[in-house]
Amino acid sequence: MKSGKYSYPGIGVAVGGLIGMVGVIAHWFTFSFPLGGGTATVSLSGRVDWTGAVALAASFGAFAFGGAYVLMPDAQIRRVMGVLMAICAAFMLFMPLFGYGRVDEAVGIPAVAFSAKAAAGLAVSFLGGVVASVGALLASKEMLASTPSTAEPEAEAVQA
């Protein structure tokens, strides 16, 4: 990384991690059930299901590895951080999708007694995964552009 220049892909992954954290902590699932003369609605965060727990861990990882990618000047450390950012971004992207398919299992109440649906936090977590994935893809492109070719030093050695 050149001095004085920020790594925007790393910042993007870190911001995606923060968005994912907010989404998991917000309401992923809601369900309503009849109570007396009306209905009661209950909202649950993503932490009640294993998919939300994995998404939360991946969002913490994306935030940490994105920050390390920005702050570390060593090329080898940045390559490792780039791979770890991509892994966390992939988990952040797919766990909300799995959570969306597991609404009934996550709520855990028989389906005849209530109506369950996905809440807005699930979409926010997915958006965080998209932002982190785009940042990780841009980081991999940045790393490929900065990797020196192995053919050039051999050509110089032969000429000398």
Considering the chains and any ligands shown, give keywords for the structure.
6 helices; alpha+beta; Butyryl-CoA Dehydrogenase, subunit A, domain 3; 3 strands; 3-stranded antiparallel beta sheet; 160 residues
Brief overview, please?
The chain is of the alpha+beta class and 160 residues long.
Report on the structure:
Strand 1 and strand 2 (38-45) form a beta hairpin. Strands 2-1-3 form a 3-stranded antiparallel sheet. It is 68% helix and 13% strand. It has one domain (8-159): Butyryl-CoA Dehydrogenase, subunit A, domain 3 (Up-down Bundle), CATH 1.20.140. It is an alpha+beta fold.
Radius of gyration using CA atoms only: 21 Å
Which series of helices and strands comes N to C? HEEHHHEHH
Number of domains: 1
Which runs of at least 5 residues are low in confidence (pLDDT < 50)?
Answer: none
Instruction: Look at the structure and give the mean pLDDT.
Output: 83
Basic shape: elongated
Q: Distance N terminus to C terminus?
A: 30 Å
The CATH architecture can be given as Up-down Bundle
The biggest beta sheet reads: 3 strands, antiparallel
CATH class descriptor: Mainly Alpha
Number of helical stretches of at least 4 residues: 6
Write the CATH fold name: Butyryl-CoA Dehydrogenase, subunit A, domain 3
Beta strand count: 3
Secondary structure elements and pairings:
Blueprint: H1 8-25, E1 27-35, E2 38-45, H2 50-71, H3 75-101, H4 103-107, E3 115-118, H5 120-146, H6 151-159
Antiparallel strand pairs: 1-2, 1-3
Helix pairs in contact: 1-2, 1-3, 1-5, 2-3, 3-5
